[in-house]
Write a structure and sequence with these properties.
This protein has 66 residues and is α+β, with helices and mostly antiparallel strands. Helices cover 17% and strands 44% of the residues. It is elongated, with a radius of gyration of 11 Å.
């Protein structure tokens, strides 16, 4: 079974935090819960799957996916 990892970097509510998750849906949910604003990286092993950045504030946040 493939597992993923969500890494939170600079500008996050939990800098340096890395969490293992079972699938991509869960990775996005974990990023949304743990990231007030800033960037998270989703990895499969050493392979970068996506970089997600939460922007905006308060009532209208949005995601930029790279």
């Amino acid at each position: 079974m493939q597992r993923y990892q969500v890494n939170f970097g600079h500008g996050t509510s939990a800098p340096g935090l890395s969490l293992d998750v079972p699938d991509l849906k869960t990775a996005l949910i974990v990023a949304d819960i743990n990231l007030e604003r800033g960037t998270a990286r989703i990895l499969s092993g050493d392979t970068l799957i996506a970089k997600v950045e939460k922007r905006g504030q308060h009532q209208a946040p949005y995601w930029v996916v790279d």
